[in-house]
Automatic annotation (TrEMBL):
<dbReference type="InterPro" id="IPR055265">
    <property type="entry name" value="Photo_RC_L/M_CS"/>
</dbReference>
<feature type="transmembrane region" description="Helical">
    <location>
        <begin position="90"/>
        <end position="113"/>
    </location>
</feature>
<keyword id="KW-0479">Metal-binding</keyword>
<dbReference type="InterPro" id="IPR000484">
    <property type="entry name" value="Photo_RC_L/M"/>
</dbReference>
<dbReference type="GO" id="GO:0009772">
    <property type="term" value="P:photosynthetic electron transport in photosystem II"/>
</dbReference>
<keyword id="KW-0148">Chlorophyll</keyword>
<keyword id="KW-0157">Chromophore</keyword>
<keyword id="KW-0472">Membrane</keyword>
<dbReference type="GO" id="GO:0046872">
    <property type="term" value="F:metal ion binding"/>
</dbReference>
<keyword id="KW-0674">Reaction center</keyword>
<dbReference type="Pfam" id="PF00124">
    <property type="entry name" value="Photo_RC"/>
</dbReference>
<keyword id="KW-0602">Photosynthesis</keyword>
<keyword id="KW-0076">Bacteriochlorophyll</keyword>
<keyword id="KW-1133">Transmembrane helix</keyword>
<comment type="similarity">
    <text>Belongs to the reaction center PufL/M/PsbA/D family.</text>
</comment>
<dbReference type="GO" id="GO:0042314">
    <property type="term" value="F:bacteriochlorophyll binding"/>
</dbReference>
<feature type="transmembrane region" description="Helical">
    <location>
        <begin position="32"/>
        <end position="53"/>
    </location>
</feature>
Amino acid sequence: GHGFPYGIFSHLDWVSNTGYAYLHFHYNPAHMLAVTLFFTTTLALALHGALVLSAANPEKGTEAQGPDNEDTFFRDFIGYSIGTLGIHRVGFLLAINAVFFSAVCIIISGPVWTQCWPEWWNWWLELPIWPSQVGM
């Protein structure tokens, strides 16, 4: 089968072999976006979970903090707080976009682009901003 195996290193081997079998799949721009969004979702919601746990699990004898304390922390730390409902909406939006770009990645890898993915990036080299390479 083509499903990935259990285990860290065997999974990494599967990712590498599948990427090369499907013409350097990791160079697909939609794949890059999808993976970035998956990791961003994980980071944002992990930070949110850590903040909630730090506010809800105080030292012994100290009262638990509420959402106002969390908002104040972020306003002091980064200058803006999205709020208690907003972070869940951002997490959902990031996750849905990751799924969407994963689907786009699979759909364009065949019907739309049939060459190796590193060749797709040649459009950058063909821009007229580069000096001429004639005679080199």
